[in-house]
Design goal:
Shape: elongated
Number of strands: 11
Order of helices and strands: HHEHEHEHHEEHEEHHEEHHEEH
Structural class: alpha+beta
Number of helices: 12
Radius of gyration: 25 Å
Length: 269
């Protein structure tokens, strides 16, 4: 955790309110699937991206700057496979599992009858000591008791646009282009060295493809075509509930008591 000037200014901007702090991070910071602490709170704020540990560090830094007790929680969770795909922004369940595995996150696919139904993985989130009623600004709070409320700024669902498929509407004959390039070059069949390649063939092909693409967009989408109609991109589905749920949006199978030791060993700040 860090309590830099930028973090203190952000906490003040968010009026030291836990709901606003949590939703700001949850809705505006990209989740990156890697394991352990890598950036710390300040770098996560600067890049507006981080994994579960680093986003937790930023959230706790902002909460503690606001005078709110908060702590790391580390455990094992199960995320339904459709939610895991939405979380990572992919459309294939096995790709979701492979992303976690290749990035070093302890995770395994849960399979029933040969079909994936969930991912079990180790994960970090936050608990803050709050009063439901008072912290939500209710005029007549039922109780003044504080309780530990779970919140996970890293878990979010990505939405997609549906752009036109330019590769289908404006195809590029790659095989033919490669044939022209090879024909213009001298290729040493022993060493594989290439000399004398006519680069104007590539430049002309790219220029022609750009012209054909622009013409297709103007003819079919008009001058008012937006980037979202042409290029694929993803964005975070915002959460503006104005409150906290009493449970996390996934199943927690167990909490690990060695959280402090693990975080220190992982270099968390």
């Amino acid at each position: 955790m860090q309590f830099t000037e930028e973090i203190q200014e952000l906490a003040e901007e968010l009026e030291y309110k836990p709901v606003e702090i949590y939703e700001y991070i949850r809705n505006n910071f990209k989740y990156e699937p890697y394991f352990g602490s890598l950036k710390g709170a300040q770098e996560t704020l600067f890049e507006k991206a981080g994994n579960d540990f680093d986003l937790a560090s930023l959230l706790i830094s902002l909460l503690r700057t606001s005078g709110i007790k908060s702590r790391y929680v580390y455990g094992e969770i199960i995320v339904p496979i459709d939610k895991a795909m939405g979380w990572l922004g992919v459309k294939d369940p096995w790709v979701a599992g492979n992303i976690f595995a290749t990035m070093g996150v302890p995770a395994r696919m849960l399979v029933v009858n040969g079909k994936p139904y969930g991912l079990r993985l180790e994960h970090c989130w936050v608990e803050a000591q709050l009063n439901y009623d008072i912290d939500l600004g209710r005029k007549n709070p039922v109780s003044k008791d504080l309780t530990w409320i779970p919140m996970d700024p890293s878990y979010k669902i990505l939405e997609y646009n549906n752009p036109v498929k330019l590769e289908e509407e404006v195809p590029l004959d790659v095989d033919s282009l490669m044939g022209e390039i090879r024909a213009s070059a001298n290729i040493d069949t022993i060493t594989g060295a290439v000399t004398g390649m006519d680069t104007t063939i590539i430049n002309q092909a790219l220029e022609d493809y750009g012209t054909r693409t622009n013409n297709w967009i103007e003819e079919n989408l008009g001058d008012s075509a937006t980037i979202g109609e042409v290029f694929p991109f993803k964005w975070i589905k915002p959460k503006v509930s104005g409150g906290f749920a009493p449970v996390l949006p996934y199943d927690v199978t167990k909490k690990k008591e060695s959280i402090l030791k693990f975080l220190m060993n992982s270099g968390i700040r």
